Amino acid sequence: MLFTLLPSTTNWSAQISIIMIICNLIAIIIGRYAIQVRGLGPSIPVSGMAGFGLTELLATTSLGHVLGAGTILGLHNIGLIN
């Protein structure tokens, strides 16, 4: 009975990982320009990311995973990915 209530989900593949990476990159780019108070936490040792610390990275990748999960489930439900 419980198995009939659960929706079908996709198996992990290279296509799924590319979608998740793209969603995370989009969220990082959006967060880079949208976060107004930056650099309060520890910094990350990446050149070109001055003022973009660990807290901002965690926040943007969290948003990226939410966007990625929604994108993957949506594309699976309309039949574009298997």
From TrEMBL:
InterPro entries: PSI_centre_PsaK_sf, PSI_PsaG/PsaK, PSI_PsaK, PSI_PsaK_bact
Positions of transmembrane segments: 12-35
GO cellular component terms, A-Z: chloroplast thylakoid membrane; photosystem I
Primary location: membrane
Family: Belongs to the PsaG/PsaK family.
Pfam families: PSI_PSAK
Organism superkingdom: Eukaryota
Lineage: Eukaryota, Rhodophyta, Florideophyceae, Corallinophycidae, Corallinales
Intracellular or extracellular location(s): Membrane; Plastid, Chloroplast thylakoid membrane
A single BP term in Gene Ontology: photosynthesis
Name of the protein described by the UniProt record: Photosystem I reaction center subunit PsaK
Record organism: Calliarthron tuberculosum (Coralline red alga)
Gene3D superfamilies: Photosystem I PsaK, reaction centre
Membrane topology, as annotated: Multi-pass membrane protein
Keywords: Chloroplast, Membrane, Photosynthesis, Photosystem I, Plastid, Thylakoid, Transmembrane, Transmembrane helix
